[in-house]
Amino acid sequence: MTEITRDVIIVGAGAAGLTAANELKKAGLSVVVLEARDRVGGRLWTDVVDGAMLEIGGQWVSPDQEALKETIAELGLETFSRYREGDSVYIDAQGELTRFTGEIFPVAPATEKEMVRLIDKLDALVAEIDPDAPWAHPDAEELDRVSFEAWLEHETTDQEARDNIALFIAGAMLTKPAYAFSALQALLMAASAGSFTHLVDADYILDERVVGGLQQVPLLLAERLGADVFLEQPVNEVKRTDSGVTVVTDAGMTVHGRYVILAHAPILYPWIEFDPPLPRLKQQLHQHISMGFVIKVHAVYDRPFWRDKGLSGTAFSPYEISHEAYDNTNHGDRRGTLVGFVSDRNADDLFRVSAEERKHRILESLSHYFGEEAMHPEVYYESDWGAEEWTRGAYAASFDLGGLHRYGADLRTPVGPIHFACSDMAGAGYQHVDGAIRMGRLVADAILEEDRA
């Protein structure tokens, strides 16, 4: 039985929690970080599987992610550009493959015109959205009462245009069917990246990677905290006291503090016993958010064979099991790696079959893009964050229909000494590491300001 006292208790050793801990420690407050897993990083995880280094969690850095880029530079890490030379490929509803360059998929002229029109309209709406307060938009309630799928159906009768525009939000980002989240939630997703156009532009949103893996960011942040980070300490109780808060873990550790930061996915709050209970509004709020579901597929080959064919490794199709794929070859590696993504209903279906059948179907989908060689990787691995006990989905939590306008403003609101911070509640950088770092800084500033008052 261990009992300690700190100024601030941080629950969760992901980018948000570790950023907050470092900021608070630099300001002179004592901290402790309690992490349920046996590692730091949260949804950032770099591991070696069958001799191949794989980024099992988040990995990309885009030009607008200033907080992440500042942290990478400050930690002395190096980045490299994603391979993108050559043609991308697109497969239409009839299964026909077309090679192309640029951002717009090679569709019929009328469909292309509709896609461009929809992108322009979404960009105009996004320009009116404050990513930190999307509920403040004059039409927020109306936009939050209609699904993104229904919004698209209202805008155009062109099915392929609808499928492709939905892909950038539903499949690639929120990893939920387009009927399961609102148009307002879709606008927040785009606003968090600066524009809908940025989401369409893979060369922008998936620009760089960190040499050696992005998990080095939380690893190095944790290193600076030393013995103040405790692993395998799932928190099961948060009790408010006259002097602040007491936190108890499953492993028998008790920590007393003046403040606590819950720096993990909000869907995990119900696994904590709060004494007294969280306010009714908070409890209602947490029932209206859920994680998406995506399988991240890693396929490592003896060489990047697609490059020999003049292909960049970038592939898209809302009609394929793997709706997108990219060249994910590691810096300086002679082998070639493809990363593919299977989301929402396709992911559901694949977990109803055997592991062998799932692997076959996914590789078959990749072979539709890149040829028969894609069926024979040297290393194959599926990142299944839905099976991770302390995450339970990916990439992040989002609201159901009507939830963002109804509860979004209360997501970050502290409850006495209890503060909340993670990428799931970020504005800029929402559901990305950049957003986690921004939220870590924001909550640290809030505590410091409160502490000085």
Overall CATH architecture of the largest domain? 3-Layer(bba) Sandwich
Supply the helix-strand structural class.
alpha/beta
Helicity, in percent?
Answer: 25-40%
- Residues in β-strands, percent: 15-25%
Number of helices: 16
Strand order of the biggest β-sheet: 9-8-19-20-21-18-22
Number of domains: 3
Straight-line distance between termini: 35 Å
**Mean residue pLDDT:** 97
Find the count of extended strands (DSSP E, 2+ residues): 24
Describe this structure in words.
It comes from Microbacterium koreense. The chain is of the alpha/beta class and 453 residues long. The strands form 6 sheets. The chain has a 7-stranded mixed beta sheet. A hairpin with a 7-residue loop joins strand 19 and strand 20. Helix 1 runs parallel beside helix 10.
